[in-house]
Amino acid sequence: MYEIGKKISNAHDDGIWSVKWSGDIIATGGMSSKVKTWNGTQPQFLTESKLFDRHVLGVTSLDIDPTDKYLATGGLDGHIRLWDLNTNTVHKDIDSGPLGCWKLGFISKGAELVTVSEAGIITIYSTETGEKTRSISNTSKQILSMAISPNGEQLAIAGTEGIVSVFELESGKKVNSFKAHSAPIRALCFSSDSKNLFTGADDSQIRLHDLHSSTPFIASFLGHSSNILCVSASKDGKKLASSGSIDRKVCIWDIKSRKLDYTFNVHADNCWDLAWSSDSTKLLSVSDDCSLVSYSLTKQ
Amino acid sequence: MTTAISNKNVSCLYIPIKDYDQGVRVPIDPLPNVDDILEILKGEVAPLDLWLKLAIEYYKQDKIQDFIKLLSQVLDPAIEEFYKDSKVERIAMLNALASYYTQLGTQERDKLKKEEYFNQATFHFNKADKIDLHQPLTWIGKAVLLLCKGEVDRAETNFQKVLDLASKDSTIPGIPAKLGHACILFNKGNYDKALDTYQKVIHQNANCSPSVRLGLGYSYFKLGRNERAKESFERVLQLDQDNVEALIGLSLVLMNEDQLAQAMELILQAYKLSPTNPIVLNHLANHYFFRGELSKVHPLAFAAFNNTDVSHIKAESCYLIARAYHAMEKWKEALQYYHQAVLKCKDFYLAQYGLGQTYLHNGDFDKAIACFELVLEKQPNNYETLQVLGVLYKHSSHSSKDTEKIKRVVKKATELNPTEPSNWIELGQILETTSELTAALDAYERGVGLMKASDQKVSSEILNNIAVLRQQKGLYPEAEATYLQIISESGFELNDYKAVNVTTTYNLARLYESMGQVVKAKEIYKGILKEHPNYIDCYLRLGCICKNEGENYESSEWYREALNISPNNAEAWALYGNLHLSRDEWYHAQKKFEQVLESSNKNDTYASLSLGNIYYNAKFSTPDKVEKYLGNAESYFQRILSKNPNNIYAANGIGMVAAEKGNFALSSEIFLQLREAAIDVQPVSINLAHIYMARGLYDNAIKLYESCLKKSTSLKDTELLLLYLSKAYYEANRFVECKLTLKKALHHSPSNQSLLYNYAITIESHANMISTKPNKKTWDTSNSITELDFAKKVLTNLSNTKPNPKLNFSISKAKHHLAKVEKLHTLLVDIHKNLEQQESDLAKKKGIAFEIQKKEEEEKKKILAEAEALRLQRVEADLKAAQEIQDKINNMATEDDSATTPSKKRKKGNNAEEDANNDDDEGLFGSDDDKKRSKKRKGTDDDGENEQEEEEAAVEGGETGETGEQETNQEGQESNNNEVEMEEKEDLFGSDQE
Known about the structure:
The structure holds two protein chains of two kinds.
Chain A: E1 2-8, E2 16-22, E3 25-30, E4 34-39, E5 48-53, E6 59-64, E7 70-75, E8 79-84, E9 89-95, E10 103-107, E11 112-116, E12 122-126, E13 132-136, E14 143-148, E15 154-159, E16 163-168, E17 174-179, E18 185-190, E19 196-201, E20 205-210, E21 217-222, E22 228-233, E23 239-244, E24 250-254, E25 259-264, E26 271-276, E27 282-287, E28 292-297
Antiparallel strand pairs in A: 1-28, 2-3, 3-4, 4-5, 6-7, 7-8, 8-9, 10-11, 11-12, 12-13, 14-15, 15-16, 16-17, 18-19, 19-20, 20-21, 22-23, 23-24, 24-25, 26-27, 27-28
Chain B: E1 12-16, E2 23-27, H1 34-44, H2 48-60, H3 64-72, H4 77-82, H5 87-107, H6 111-131, H7 136-149, H8 152-168, H9 175-187, H10 191-204, H11 210-222, H12 226-239, H13 244-256, H14 260-273, H15 278-290, H16 294-306, H17 311-327, H18 331-344, H19 349-361, H20 365-378, H21 383-395, H22 403-416, H23 421-433, H24 437-453, H25 460-473, H26 476-490, H27 494-500, H28 502-514, H29 518-531, H30 536-548, H31 552-565, H32 570-582, H33 586-600, H34 605-621, H35 626-643, H36 648-660, H37 664-677, H38 682-694, H39 698-711, H40 715-731, H41 735-748, H42 753-771, H43 778-799, H44 811-888, H45 893-942, H46 947-960, H47 964-993
Antiparallel strand pairs in B: 1-2
Helix pairs in contact in B: 2-3, 2-5, 5-6, 5-7, 6-7, 7-8, 7-9, 8-9, 9-10, 10-11, 11-12, 11-13, 12-13, 13-14, 14-15, 15-16, 15-17, 16-17, 17-18, 17-19, 18-19, 19-20, 20-21, 21-22, 22-23, 23-24, 24-25, 25-26, 26-28, 27-28, 28-29, 29-30, 30-31, 30-32, 31-32, 32-33, 33-34, 34-35, 34-36, 35-36, ...
InterPro entries (chain B): Ctr9, TPR-like_helical_dom_sf, TPR_rpt
GO molecular function (chain B): RNA polymerase II complex binding
Pfam families (chain B): TPR_1 (PF00515), TPR_16 (PF13432), TPR_6 (PF13174), TPR_7 (PF13176), TPR_8 (PF13181)
């Protein structure tokens, strides 16, 4: 049964751009200065928990570290803020310059934080000290999306030119680079086994690529009628969720058969981000329409 | 009609002799000479009813001349005068004459003579009317006449009148009128009511003539109650075994019951009795037709045709003749007679069908369609007709005209026979043309399903159509499967199949293209080109693919290839032009579109429109030739409009040119009109919003941009609209919304530097506004300072970028703004410090004030408590004293007691008054404070931009606050006020700029 679970209509005062779900904690951020956390388990599922209000401009990316200790948020103002979820205070505030941190994510089991700027600069910070530890050299510019492989070994980035670059996180070596679309790629996500990569682009297509092949393209997933804003594979490796901008859709795909399973039409504006529950039975979506929606995706 | 006048056989009549009891005996058979009789009648002044009786006897003996002569006497003025009082008799005589003429008229075939007879009848009825206008008999007569003349409605009213009278006055004969009425009902097809009336008549008059039962029989027959019809006809035949109509009726019933032999016997019997009866003849002809004796059909049918005046019987005859010719394949004659039949009786659908078939044979499809459509009007569920029509529509020349009609026909066919696959395929094809993709696909799939179920082979054309439909519906994998099925069923490999069927292969490539499998698509296109080097579409698609992939040079190469093969291909030139347009190569694009107009189509709308737009855009790059280019653009747009006045884009162009020439009134009128006509055409709405912007109507512009944004269907449009909207907000000084809009835009395209630049400028303007804002709070300034920090960084970055012609902002301006932002930053930091100082002072004051108040209150309480204690002491003392006095002076104490109580009361009263005074003081204080605050608010509104005064006001605000509690309230109120003020101010800014 695929059905809408709960809809929080005005979860934020302005559009929501980013959502993460780790165990009991759900974090959302967006256009407004506020970052919120929500309860991720019953019986208080999706009730507001904490509020962090420090960013001046919108929050474009956020992540929760695997130990649920820190929440990292990155905004248009270039400030990366690490929040201590136990004390609800700012642990570190790192200034990376305007648009210096477009996307971010925890790596090394939460010990480090990787960020990529709009200009394509990849930087790695220590979570504990907030100091920059190293950077990965990259030549591609105008970056729109970033993904970290579930096994924590690889980092993929893509942008306006439709080119995907894959790096080995430990060595910082570029291991693969290919043209996945001839349109900007805004959505990027590894398969649960870290072997394949999903891309979603402005050409309304989701494509599946084999990262270990010289001709990576495997298949197209067609069903969206506008540019794709997010792709997210479930942790059990069975489903792929995707969301669109103008078509406002949230689509659920069966990865094995590559078929569209279900389409939700809940949002009234761009649906920017999606997050799976760790047991792959629930999904969250956030949108410019200020709403946070949960879906129940259990097979009967 | 004549049945009404029935008489018993009388052997002789007596004419009474005047003044004697005796009479003259007149033998009936044979009747004497009419002149002799007349002499006697006149001489003896015989009563007129006798005259009538004699006349009827003459009529019965077929001495028509004598009958007329006798009755005509009534018109003689002398007789008229003499029998003045015998009105009824005279009317009867006139009616008899009139009825006779009516009868003559109905039997006459010569139109002129017929007319003459009817006129005679009318004449006599009129005479009768002159004697007495209200004689029911005359009305019935007239009604019959009208009925015979075909004026059914008037006849009916006459009958109705008589019936109305008869219902009131039982002496008036109602039966004839009822019969007439029933007859009319029958002819109007109201068989139920006719039957009812006939039944009533028979009930009233069991001995009525057999013809009434005939009516009953036919009514039953029409109602499909064959058993009762049969009974009625048999009863008639019992009464009158030679009644031809009853024989026919009975045979019809039998035919309906499939007892053809018996029916034919009856027909033959009828034929013997009345060899000229057209119905009998037609039936015979029909009989021979079915027996295949075609040669006998014609004489019979012709005879029927010649023996009747009734058009539908004639039509039947014609139909029979035509059918015989049709069977003999004499098309020309068949056509002629079918046509006659249809002319004679428009509702005769069998003949229409025959006519349609004949037209069909002659290849006259449109006429055939018209015929079958008429059949369908009468018989909407006739499956054969539906099927024939469905097929015919495809061949007709005007099939595109009324697809709705065609759809209805074909749909009906599928409803009537849903197991016939060809019907479904037919329906699919029709729905395809009307772009009802889902329904079309559904129909095709059902058709194919049925074909498969019955092991029929599905043609590759049908499969191809299904695949195309699936592709159009976005069911790409299904479409792909179908294409591959077609190819595998053909027994070829994909690589070889392109030689067999280019269309399917090409479609497959188009499918791959829309599936995003560009590599596969390209491969197939190139493969097709190897086999069919002239397949232009492949070159064009390859060009498009390359263009989409950003490989512009390769794209242009493919277009050029296409143009080598077909130098005048408008589509190729237009695509080539578009390629240039996408790269802003205006000159080259212009040349390409001009080529379209020159070589292929002088009036090509697309090319003309593109050229108009190119000239319009050219004015931006060449400021010195603006006039000329705008003129050129206008003439292109005008040219399109002269050919195609409904072209919205051309009209939009005219509006753009008008706006560019500064004629905002005209252009906004154009855009407004266009918007009404086509609310979904975004460019029009956007242009109208631009005009509003130019005229300073920012709010209107904002509304329009926002509604466009909601409807936007492409990311490109969305980004542009966000830009326009932010500009509008900026101009309207609505900086908060402006920043939000820019933030949205930045989130879509973070690499767009001009967005960042705009963002920084907006921060600057907003900070500027905040710095001059009255009653600002530290929250405002601190926010603004952080934003300015960001703006500073952005502008520093931007002014340090390397000069590059593609930059979408000006570096020098960025530097200029950077300086301003820095200044503002320091200013705001100062203000912020001040504010913080003030606020902390205030807080301190608040603290002190609170302390003071607390102390005061405590003191007050202390004083009060002391006072109370004192009072109590005193009271106690008094009481004690009183007690003592009372104790001491027992009986005299009453006076003293009365003196002390009032004083006690007075004291209490004083205390109460004091309390009230205190309350008053506090109240006054509070209200005073309120007044001051409201005054201050007004003041700042007036001099909103004056910085100094504001600061004073702020200081004042600080001073007025005295008591802690009130202060907190005030703060809350003030922050609310701030918002209101801001909005008001925005409006002020807006109107200033207007």
